[in-house]
Design a protein that fits this description.
The chain contains five helices and five strands; from the N terminus they run H-E-H-E-H-E-H-H-E-E. By secondary structure, it is an alpha/beta fold.
Length: 169
């Protein structure tokens, strides 16, 4: 039996597919850039950042984390020709609210010893300061040997309260 979420997906997709006319788009992004941003459900990258279907790669993870995105960024640039990265973190991010020890304690409580063991070395990569988190991730990308010096990298903060972005790095 399909869950309500699965049923909704099928219904909404049928509506979307009935008028879909973008099957001709090329595999590489037309505007040759990638966006790294948070998986937070309050962020709609296409609407907030003006990204049309086919324009850019949008890479999402907890905190809009550069380290977690490196594999996707290398594929985006080396195999699919992007030449710019916009790293966008946001106000009110959950990654600002805890430390590694806190996350590990929750995992242990909820998943028990097996979860604790499997994730024991995991760095959840929280950050206590939003702007510094953006600056640190931009620095990481600029210093990475996996990202060519020719790639433009900038860092931004999206304000979930207003919908506005501001450049930080």
């Amino acid at each position: 039996m399909a869950s309500q979420i699965q049923q909704s997906l099928e219904q909404k997709n049928a509506q979307y597919a009935s008028s879909f006319k973008e099957g001709h788009l090329a595999l590489p992004p037309a505007k040759k850039y990638a966006v790294v941003t948070c998986m937070d459900a309050r962020i709609d990258p296409a609407a907030a950042f003006g990204i049309s279907l086919g324009d850019a790669h949008v890479i999402r993870n907890a905190g809009g984390n550069a380290r977690d995105s490196i594999r996707s960024l290398v594929i985006s640039e080396q195999l699919l020709g992007t030449n710019e990265i916009l790293l966008i973190k946001h106000t009110g991010c959950g990654m600002l609210t805890f430390k590694n020890e806190d996350a590990h304690a929750v995992v242990e409580k909820q998943l028990g010893a097996s979860g604790k063991q499997e994730l024991s070395g995991l760095d959840f990569q929280p950050f206590p300061d939003l702007e510094k988190g953006v600056e640190d991730d931009v620095k990481f990308l600029k210093e990475s040997k996996a990202i060519p010096d020719s790639v433009t990298i900038t860092g931004w903060v999206y304000e979930v309260e207003t919908g506005k972005v501001r450049k930080v790095a």
